Automatic annotation (TrEMBL):
A Pfam entry, by short name: Pentapeptide
Lineage, highest ranks first: Bacteria, Pseudomonadati, Pseudomonadota, Alphaproteobacteria, Rhodospirillales
PANTHER family: BTB_POZ DOMAIN-CONTAINING PROTEIN KCTD9
UniProt protein name: Pentapeptide repeat-containing protein
InterPro entries: 5peptide_repeat, Pentapeptide-BTB/POZ_domain
Length: 399
C-alpha cells in the first residue's frame, strides 16, 4: 500500500532508508558503508531534511517537492535531477554537479552553491539499475525559474546559460560567478554581490538591480535591456496573423507567441492581443492604450513606463511583470468564465512591481495581487475591493 502523502510504498521507503544509511556510513568511513547510486529514483515529496548525500550519484533523480533543508549534498552529481518546488534552504551544494537540473519554484534560501556547476546538461547513454541505457541524448539548460536564492552563496559557481527567470537573489553572493548567457529576466538581484561576476551575453530585462550594479554594468558596457531580439517591421506581420487567428477562431492565421523579444516603445494601442503569449519581453514605454489583452499572458515582461490606459486586462496573466511608472488608468481587470472551471479566471499580478503605477481602473474583480509591490501606486476601491492582497506591499494612500 502506498503512503497517502508521498505515493511511495512502505517497501520502497524501507529500501531508500537502507541505502541512505549505507551511504552515510560510507561518508564517515564506517565499515559496511557503500556509496549511493540513486540515479533515476523517485524520491519526491519525502521528508529528507538534513540527509547526507555527499558525493552521491543522483543523475535524473526526482526530489520534486521534497524537504531537503540543511541537506549535505556537497559534490553530489545531480545532473538532470528534478527538484521543482523542493525545500533546499540552508542546504550544502558546494561543488555539486547541477547541470540540467530543474529547480523551478524551489527554496534555496541561504543554500551554499559555491563552485557548483549549473551549466546546460547533456545526458547520453547512461545505464543504471533504474534506467537502462537507451542511447538517446537529452540536453536542457538548468532551470531556476521563480526559485528563492535569497542570501545564497554562489561564489565561483558556473551558471552559464542558466534560466533564472523571476528568481530571487536578494543579498546573494555571486562573487566570481560565471553568468555568461544566463537569463535573468525579472530576477531580483537587489543587494547581491557581483564582484568579478561574468555577465557576458546575459539577459537582464526587467531585473531588479542596485545603483552600484547598474554603474558596474555600464562601466563594462553591459546594457541591462540589451540582448533581446528586435522584431522591427516583422511585428506588424505577426499581429496580422494573430488577428486572422482570432477572426477565424483558430482555423487559420497564427496565435502571437513571443519570448525574449524587444517591444520597447511599440505602438500597440487599440490592438486586439487577446489570448496572445508575450512572455519575458521588453515592453518599456510601449503604447497599449485601449488594447484588448483579455486572457493574454505577459508574465515576466518589462512594462515599466508603459501606457495601458483603457486596456482590457481581464484574465490577463501578469506574474512578476515590472509596471513601474506605468498606467492602468480606466482599465478593466475582471475575471473571465472559462469552460467548466468552477471559478472564473482572474487577472494575475502576483509578485508584480507596481511602484508609482496609476492603478485607478474602471472595473475589477478578484484580481490576484499576492506579494505585489504597490509602493507609491495610485489605487481606487474598484481595484482593491475583492482583490487578493496577501503579502503585498500596499500604498499608504489611495488616489
Amino acid at each position: 500500500m502506498s503512503h497517502p502523502a508521498t505515493g511511495h510504498s512502505a517497501a520502497y521507503i524501507a529500501e531508500l532508508k537502507k541505502r541512505l544509511n549505507s551511504h552515510r556510513k560510507w561518508v564517515i568511513g564506517t565499515r559496511g558503508g557503500v556509496q549511493a547510486d540513486l540515479s533515476f529514483y523517485d524520491m519526491s515529496q519525502l521528508p529528507l531534511g538534513g540527509v547526507v548525500l555527499r558525493n552521491a550519484k543522483l543523475v535524473g533523480t526526482s526530489f520534486a517537492r521534497s524537504n531537503l533543508s540543511r541537506a549535505d549534498l556537497k559534490a553530489a552529481v545531480l545532473m538532470m535531477a528534478e527538484l521543482e518546488g523542493a525545500d533546499l534552504s540552508q542546504a550544502d551544494l558546494l561543488g555539486a554537479d547541477l547541470r540540467g537540473a530543474c529547480f523551478n519554484g524551489a527554496n534555496l534560501a541561504e543554500a551554499n552553491l559555491a563552485g557548483a556547476d549549473l551549466r546546460t546538461g547533456s545526458l547520453g547513454a547512461v545505464s543504471t539499475r533504474q534506467q537502462p541505457s537507451a542511447g538517446t541524448v537529452v540536453s536542457r539548460r538548468t532551470e531556476l525559474m521563480d526559485a528563492n536564492l535569497n542570501r545564497a552563496i554562489l561564489v565561483g559557481s558556473n551558471l552559464g546559460n542558466c534560466d533564472l527567470t523571476g528568481a530571487e537573489l536578494v543579498d546573494a553572493d555571486l562573487s566570481g560567478a560565471d553568468l555568461t548567457g544566463a537569463i535573468l529576466v525579472s530576477t531580483d538581484l537587489s543587494g547581491a554581490t557581483l564582484k568579478n561576476t561574468t555577465l557576458t551575453g546575459a539577459v537582464l530585462s526587467g531585473a531588479v538591480l542596485d545603483a552600484d550594479a547598474v554603474a558596474r554594468m555600464a562601466h563594462l558596457g553591459i546594457n541591462p535591456d540589451g540582448n533581446l531580439e528586435s522584431l522591427g517591421e516583422r511585428l506588424f506581420e505577426l499581429l496580422a496573423h494573430h488577428q486572422e487567428w482570432l477572426d477565424s477562431e483558430g482555423r487559420s492565421g497564427q496565435r502571437l507567441e513571443l519570448d525574449l523579444a524587444d517591444l520597447s516603445d511599440a505602438p500597440l494601442g487599440e490592438v486586439d492581443l487577446s489570448a496572445a503569449k508575450i512572455q519575458r519581453c521588453n515592453l518599456r514605454n510601449a503604447n497599449l492604450t485601449g488594447s484588448n489583452l483579455m486572457m493574454a499572458d505577459l508574465s515576466y515582461s518589462n512594462l515599466s513606463g508603459a501606457d495601458l490606459s483603457g486596456a482590457n486586462l481581464s484574465g490577463c496573466g501578469m506574474r512578476r511583470v515590472n509596471l513601474t511608472g506605468g498606467s492602468l488608468r480606466d482599465s478593466v481587470l475582471l475575471s473571465v468564465p472559462v469552460g467548466d472551471l468552477e471559478r472564473p479566471w482572474p487577472t494575475n499580478l502576483q509578485y508584480a512591481r507596481l511602484n508609482d503605477c496609476d492603478l485607478r481602473c474602471r472595473a475589477a474583480a478578484g484580481v490576484i495581487l499576492r506579494h505585489a509591490d504597490l509602493t507609491g501606486a495610485r489605487v481606487n476601491m474598484a481595484l482593491m475591493k475583492g482583490s487578493d492582497t496577501s503579502g503585498a506591499r500596499l500604498p499608504t494612500t489611495r488616489g
